Amino acid sequence: MTRAGRRRGAIFGGMFGLLALYWGVIFAQDAATTAEVPKKTLTVVPVVVPEEFHVVMTRMQAAKAKIQLQHMDLLKQRYDLGDHPVDGVTMSRKKAVQGQVRSRLPDGLTWEKLSAMDPAEIREKDLFPIGFLPLPHPNHPEGGMLFPKFHIAEIKKQEARDLTRFDLDYDLPDHFLPEFPPLMFLTTRPDLGDVSQGKLVTMDNFQELLGGILNPKQLEGVRLLVSPFMQQQFNQTDDRRSIRPSRGVTCFDCHANGHTNASTHLAGDVRPQDVRHRLDTPTLRGVNIQRLFGSQRALKTVEDFTEFEQRGAYFDGDPILATKKGVNILERGSQVHFMAEFQELLDFPPAPKLNLFGKLDPNLANEQEMRGQALFFGKAQCSICHPAPYYTDNLMHNMKTERFYKPKTVSGHRMIGDGPIKSFPLRGIKDSPPYLHDGRLLTLDDTVEFFNLILELKLSGAEKQDLVAFLLVL
Asked: 86-133+351-471: which CATH architecture?
């Protein structure tokens, strides 16, 4: 044997000797302490070790009321939370659409006075409306998925699956949320109208509702979309946020009936925790015409997004926790494809006043709606990012909202700006409140006022009303 060979042999021999000594010590300790081994043994590495589950739950339950009261105080400071519907305007299923600008202004200030100032003056005087600042999660340091109570109640009724968190409840009042359950429209069967028949599509009824309308591959896609899979807060580990071990959540627990119920979460792609953005669940209607997905729009197909959600987004972007908590790895060539194919069938709601080019039919629209359309494609510059017929350019735009306020921390959320934001389709927009990527804008009136300020449009009060009237018929 060469000198190098003898040297390698000595090294490996030494390593095996150390390993034998190590395992000998371990086995000796096991033999010496057999009587001390607890009855409960773990076959996997625990996700969180320091405290027993019941200790964590008891502490968080005790803190819940105070956390929620503080957050509700913040919402009341930011907004008028009253029930003020738009007269005669409803969503597709006849739920009232909320109106009026809800974001509060500092005493003595009007929207006209504010929009006359330049961004630097607003920033220096700290006059940017607090309702236009990023919206914190109800408990921003904790984060995690939160579902409206009406969705929780329906899932418990149909499946006996509980989406209640013991530490936190959803925050925004129901009248600011999409109608429930939302209608479901398919590009392949527009003749049928609402194929959900007014019901929430779940594991219990999807075969009954959609069998015979979809082909077997699409139907299997629906089954996967309503199947519960492990998620960060809803799983079977001891750091879950449900009282009992959970079967997890489904895609349609947020995207109810392929639309949205305004469930919220925190974006998984930013750290540290205090700068993560709150997420308002976007609708899946019209996914077939979209080309950017994910909270930073880095995903280019709905297949990418479907796979990413299961692998990463469900677990706050942490693949190590995902593995430990039981991530569901979807098979790309079949399962991901089946789910994506069905999502591509989800259609926008009917818009009777629009023609084939996505513009208003003058014979059906009223004068205010026509004035609003002229503003949308003219002075208000909305169409630069939201061109007809689907009212999206499928691009990202940075509005640089940080021009208007200095960095600040509110309720554990450090607000440093929004960065690039996707131009979401505006077709059917009245069905999808609240607005903007984090749901900070409660009404379309708020949305028009926000962009009037951010884009320095100098719209008059009448022009803003005309613009809202147009958005309501898209």
From this structure: Orthogonal Bundle (1.10)
Cα distances (angstroms) measured from residue 168 to each of 71, 212, 465: 11, 41, 37
Q: 16-20, 120-124, 152-156, 201-205 — which is least confidently predicted?
A: 16-20
| Long-range residue pairs from 55-59, CB within 8 A, at least 24 positions apart, any chain | 56/238, 56/239, 57/166, 57/167, 57/243
pLDDT digits (tens, 9 = 90+) for 415-429: 999 999 999 999 999
Contact 394, 297 (CB under 8 A): no
Which tokens in the block code for residue 139? 């408990």
Domain ranges of the chain: 86-133+351-471, 145-343
HSE, CB side, 13 Å, CA atoms: give it for residue 125: 12
Contact predicate 303/337, CB 8 Å: yes
| Residue type (1 letter), 390 | Y
**Distance from CA of residue 284 to its chain's centroid?**
11
User: Is the Cβ–Cβ distance between 166 and 241 less than 8 Å?
Assistant: yes
Q: Tell whether omega for the bond before 387 is within 30 degrees of 0, i.e. cis.
A: no
Q: Which pLDDT tens digit goes with each residue over 355-392?
A: 999 999 999 999 999 999 999 999 999 999 999 999 99
> Count of alpha carbons within 13 Å of 321, Cβ hemisphere only?
21
Which helix H or strand E contains 25, and what residues bound it? helix 3-32
Rounded (10°) angle between helices 461-471 and 367-376: 100
Separation in Å, CA 271 to CA 231, 277, 393, 444: 19, 10, 29, 31
User: Would you list the DSSP string of 247-285?
Assistant: --B-GGGTSGGGS----EEE-TT--SGGGPPEEEPPP-T
Mean pLDDT of 201-209: 98
Is the CA virtual torsion 31, 35, 36, 39 positive or negative? positive
> 461-471 and 444-454 helices cross at what angle (nearest 10)?
130
Residue pair 286/427 in contact (Cβ under 8 Å)? The answer is yes
pLDDT band at 21 (very low <50, low <70, confident <90, very high): very low
Q: Scanning the structure block, which residue is given the tokens 């998925």? A: 145
Residue-wise pLDDT for 106-131, tens only, equals 899 999 999 999 999 999 999 999 99
Contact 357, 328 (CB under 8 A): no
| Amino acid, single-letter form, for residue 153 | A
Q: Which two tokens stand for residue 411?
A: 């309720």
Q: Which of 440, 455, 446 is nearest to 400 (CA)?
A: 455
Q: How confident is the model at residue 48 (pLDDT cuts 50, 70, 90)?
A: low
- The residue type found at 91 is M
Query: In this structure, what are the phi and psi dihedrals at residue 123, rounded to the nearest 5 degrees?
Result: -65, -45
CA distances from 362 to 27, 352, 358, 369 (A): 85, 12, 12, 9
